[in-house]
Predict the structure of MFS transporter.
Amino acid sequence: MVCLFGVRGKLQQERKDAPRTALAAEVRAGLVWMWRQHFLRAVMAAVAVSNVLFQGLNLAVMSGIQSAGGTEFQVGVVLSLSGAGGLVGALSGGRWTERLSMRALVIGGLAVWALLMVPVAVLRDPYALGAIFALSGYVGGVFNVAGGVYLVRIAPDSMRGRANSLAMLVGGGAMAAGPVAAGFALEGLGPTRTILGLSLAMAVTALAALISPALRRGPFAAAD
């Protein structure tokens, strides 16, 4: 809340008094606008998949630490370091958006995540896992800032609320599937194989983003 006092300039255009349209019509207009944004739609899909995988990874890591004799405190340390990395990533996200295009950030971030997941399959030391989760959280923080800035810049003033709500619904709603899928995998495969499977799925997601026509046609230049 303190940071909000540092924001300068108007955050919304002046609007003329106009009759409100039906809620269903407004929702439909937001969905139509978002569907026509091919690059943004592809990014949302990649983020939704990665959210599913990371929720599954969290559950698999918790199971792996406890099966190796770890404590709940150690599990908390790992997850807390992930949050700390996300905070640092968010604070430095603006610098990344100035230096790299949104396309490069998406593909590069997914590739880094895929690489970071692999050692998680064999590590059981909570502090080593915490360091990896901090790096993963850092990438996620940069993602959140870059995606938010990009969405605000391309969405018309009248669509920003609806576009942001839809992005949050897709990205956040997908998280519910991660623990469920990981739970079945853990029962049948155990933590190590489950995490390796999640790593492979993340690598496939990064590859799909690399060859995606929508992302290839996306913005190449860094944000102005």
